[in-house]
Amino acid sequence: MTKKSNPKVKAAAFSICGAFTLAAIKLVVAFFSGSMAVMASAIDSLLDILMSGVNFMAIRHAEQPPDQSHPFGHGKYETLATLFQALVISGSGGWIIYESIVRLSQNNALENIDQGIGVLAFSAIVSWFIASYLSKVAKETDSSALEADSLHFRMDIYSNLGLMAGLLMVRWFNISWLDPALSILVASYILHEALQLIKRSLTDILDHELPDEIQQQVHQLISNHSGPLAGYHGLRTRRAGSLKIMDFHLEVCKDMSVAEAHALADSLEKKIEKEIPGANVIIHIEPCPVEDCPGVENCEIGKSRVPRRFQEH
């Protein structure tokens, strides 16, 4: 698959175009209306452009095949992009809170509120389409960078709707402090979500094990695999972008030839990689520790098709 036709690269490019369009419209309206709510949303869209651009470059690098310097591939470019997005989102949230507090102290009146309401409504609709598309591709490709980008656009939806409600209240009841007050609430939500992104990206960078459901899926695939498997142990897992790296020790009958044991391990690797998208599996073969081996044909352990043990080491 070429980079041009890669769905992850296409989604990242689409995100840049959408963010650029929204930012341009919001900046114009914010300048004429003086609304801190619209300005906050405009700044957020400018950051969307930056982060979507980083996503685009990171995904292009992450999709490169393994080489001599990067034998496990380049998947952690995506993780770094996710961390970068989270840090930028945190900074934008802090800036919005600061500017909103300044506006509260100055109690500035708003002009052209109707324009602000209109652009926020339009922005919420466009952000919904972008977020839905990014979320769809993120799930299909298991991309953490696209998932983070999708989350940011979903945050735009909620923030735009909330800020639009605030401007409506200002218009109907002339409560000028409500605009910056709601901006502070939205920024606080943004900071909360950013912390979740930071936590997830650090988890991948520090090679935290894959979720329990994936490890259980691996266990079931080994248990149900046809062949004289005596057991397995030492399952280790980690993530590098969309790549799920795992290795374990597979116990086989000591009477099996090297070729037979290799063929068994190879078929199991292919089965796991087929059932778990993005899996990269390495199996180390070990002889069954049972001292009185009855042979492959008479092995009750192998016939049970259930690995004898599941240990960490």
Summarize the structure.
With 313 residues, the chain is of the alpha/beta class. It is built from nine helices and four strands, in the order αααααααββαβαβ.
Features:
disordered C terminus; Alpha-lytic protease prodomain-like; 4 strands; Alpha-Beta Plaits; 4-stranded mixed β-sheet; alpha/beta; elongated; 11% strand; 66% helix; 313 residues
Verbal overview:
Residues 210-288 form the Cation efflux protein cytoplasmic domain. This protein has 313 residues and is an alpha/beta fold. It folds into two domains: 7-205, Cation efflux protein transmembrane domain (Alpha-lytic protease prodomain-like, Up-down Bundle), CATH 1.20.1510; 212-311, Alpha-Beta Plaits. Helices cover 66% and strands 11% of the residues. The protein has helices at 7-33, 36-62, 76-106, 113-141, 144-173, 178-205, 212-223, 258-275, 300-304; strands at residues 229-240, 243-252, 279-287, 310-311. Strands 3-2-1-4 form a four-stranded mixed β-sheet. Strand 2 (243-252), helix 8 and strand 3 (279-287) form a beta-alpha-beta unit. Helix 1 (7-33) runs antiparallel to helix 4 (113-141), helix 3 runs antiparallel to helix 6 (178-205) and helix 5 packs antiparallel against helix 6. The longest helix is centred in the first third of the chain and has 31 residues, at 76-106. The chain starts with 6 loop residues before the first helix and ends with a strand. 40% of the residues are buried.
